[in-house]
Write a structure and sequence with these properties.
five-stranded mixed β-sheet, alpha+beta, 10 strands, elongated, Beta Polymerase, domain 2
């Protein structure tokens, strides 16, 4: 039965729920000194949240956590392995009422795990930055209205906000729109990453294609490899999300394109290196990716005009991605129509070019 999502006002009882459950876990694990932190939205006073208490449990190593699995399961928790985050063990305590959200989520981390550090930093950031807390609350209300029974897309829809917060916490400025000359390394990098993805998704996908500007020889581009994972059906592709996350990707939900699973990958410095668009093979969006790429490959004058425009826009609006994207709109529409596209070009699609 699908679970109905609810975002409710902050409940002052949530910390006491955490305290009681943490005590239960310490008792069953026979370790009164076990470090368990209250994380997630219910750990932030004043923040509306799904009424699920998230907890982070810390163990010395990933292997050491093995000893705690059965005791925790004896409390009624379901164990889901790493569930998209390598090095983490994930549990949830189901609600006995069918169709209701889980009661608790437990994330078990080895000491020093980067994802755990981010969870704690994000919690503390929201506790001390009221404007960010209110913006996050507004986003969650919007997402739960848009996806009232789809927790996967709800969670993915929060990623862009969370990534921006992580950059701010790390003292990093917003990433600029950098456009560089074409590199012969780009198709090689696509092939390397596509091989990793093929191994992860197996026969669940129809194919993986290099799309976007880095797929067009001679075209200046942002140094980000765009890839399209073609699938038969959007909903049937949901099990692929955790597999792809385990390769180091962030899952971003639809990100403005209906029936798309969108992912990004970063390097260790937080720079985006890959975009992955998981699309139904017969969709209009997949057709647009192919049409735009193939037209630019076959029409050097349009390729050069597009590249020169991007270089000018990056120089003028490198710190304003919205202005950079908007500046490309007219030329993208003209190129798509010359390539045979009919009808309006959605702005969200243009923003991914």
């Amino acid at each position: 039965m699908p679970k109905t999502l609810r975002v409710v006002e902050s409940d002052p009882r949530w910390p006491s729920f955490f305290d009681a459950e943490a005590a239960r876990i310490r008792a069953v694990c026979q370790d009164p000194n076990l470090v368990i932190e209250h994380v997630g939205s219910t750990a932030v006073p004043g923040l509306p949240a799904k009424p699920i208490v998230d907890m982070a449990l810390f163990v010395p190593t990933f292997e050491a956590g093995e000893a705690y699995i059965d005791p925790i399961r004896s409390l009624g928790y379901d164990y889901h392995g790493v569930a998209g985050v390598p090095g983490r063990r994930y549990f949830d305590l189901p609600n006995p009422v069918a169709g209701e959200l889980d009661l608790f989520h437990l994330h078990m981390y080895p000491a020093g795990h980067a994802d755990a550090a981010r969870l704690l930093a994000f919690r503390d950031h929201l506790r001390t930055h009221p404007a960010e807390r209110e913006a996050y609350a507004a986003l969650k209300r919007d997402l739960v209205a848009r996806y009232p029974s789809d927790i996967l897309l709800y969670i993915g829809g929060k990623t862009a906000f969370i990534r921006r917060a992580y950059r701010a916490i790390a003292g990093l400025p917003p990433a600029p729109a950098e456009v560089v000359p074409y590199s012969a390394e780009w198709p090689l990098e696509f092939e390397r990453e596509a091989a990793r993805l093929r191994e992860a998704v197996g026969e669940s996908a129809i194919g993986i294609e290099h799309v976007g500007s880095t797929a067009v020889p001679g075209l200046s581009a942002k140094p980000i490899i765009d890839m399209m994972l073609a699938v038969e059906d959007f909903d049937a592709a949901r099990p692929l999300v955790h597999r792809i996350e385990e390769l180091g990707y962030w899952y971003c939900g639809e990100n403005g394109i209906p029936r798309r699973h969108y992912f990004i990958k970063e390097d260790d410095a937080g720079n985006v290196t890959h975009h992955l668009h998981t699309l139904e093979d017969a969709s209009l969006e997949a057709r647009k990716h192919r049409l735009f790429r193939d037209h630019l490959r076959a029409h050097p004058a349009d390729r050069d005009a597009y590249g020169e425009l991007k270089l000018r826009l990056a120089a003028a609006h490198g710190q304003d991605r919205a202005a950079y994207q908007e500046g490309k709109t007219a030329l993208i529409e003209r190129i798509l129509r010359d390539a045979g596209w009919e009808g309006e070009v959605p702005s969200a699609e243009r923003d991914r070019r």
